[in-house]
Design a protein that fits this description.
Length: 204
């Protein structure tokens, strides 16, 4: 039996990414690993794509322009950023902020799964298609955004049933007025999704 806290267990996962030399080329070209931040006991985890310049400098996810927008949307639904957990699929900054490569996402996926296995959230919100396709391989973000789905995450010796919500990426939406409004509208579904999830669990 393990008596370590979720934070202790997450710290070990962070160390193992470095020890296992995951994406060593990305690591060499970036300042630091951006592992995740927030409350490890949160019922909601947000998963983005990869760190940008500001995240690479600070070691924290979503602290640049996209992060400010994410903070504003969290405020809209009365959620404090410190009360949720935020991470990315790829945890080193890709050069010139290029899209993460499929093999980079593949290499990092077991570590994201491990984070979720430890945190055991009820809702996972994917920010953008790169994060979304880790949970729904055939995701088409233009069609699937804002549609919550119950899925099971299979870990080595357990299963976790979650609600999965794919959303547009805040950085993409910032520069496109209609996408921005759609993202805000989709984001506002989060409280209702959490409430419905509790209600449906009661009648099961
Ligand atoms: N975009 C992301 O996907 N993640 C970050 O941490 C910052 C910007």
């Amino acid at each position: 039996m393990s008596f370590s806290t979720k934070a202790d267990q997450l710290a070990l996962v962070k160390e193992s990414i470095i020890k296992d030399r995951i994406c060593s080329e990305l690591a060499a070209g970036s300042k630091q690993l951006v592992f995740g931040s927030g409350d490890p006991d949160s019922e909601i985890v947000f998963v983005g794509e990869a760190p940008g310049k500001k995240e690479d400098e600070s070691g924290l996810p979503f602290v640049g322009r996209a992060g400010n927008f994410l903070n504003q949307m969290l405020e809209l639904i009365a959620l404090d950023r410190s009360k949720v957990y935020i991470t990315n699929i790829v945890k080193y900054r890709p050069p010139n902020n290029r899209d993460p490569l499929p093999e980079e996402k593949r290499e990092f996926l077991p570590y994201l799964q491990r984070q979720l296995e430890i945190i055991r959230p009820r809702l996972v919100v994917a920010l953008g298609r790169h994060a979304g396709s880790c949970f729904m391989p055939h995701l088409i973000i233009g069609q699937d955004h804002g549609k919550a789905k119950r899925i099971a995450l299979n870990f080595s010796d357990s299963e976790l049933k979650i609600v999965f919500l794919p959303l547009f990426h805040p950085a993409a939406a910032l520069y496109n007025g209609s996408m921005k409004q759609t993202l805000i509208d989709d984001f506002m579904l989060i409280p209702k999704i959490m409430e419905l999830d509790i209600l449906t669990k009661k009648i099961k």
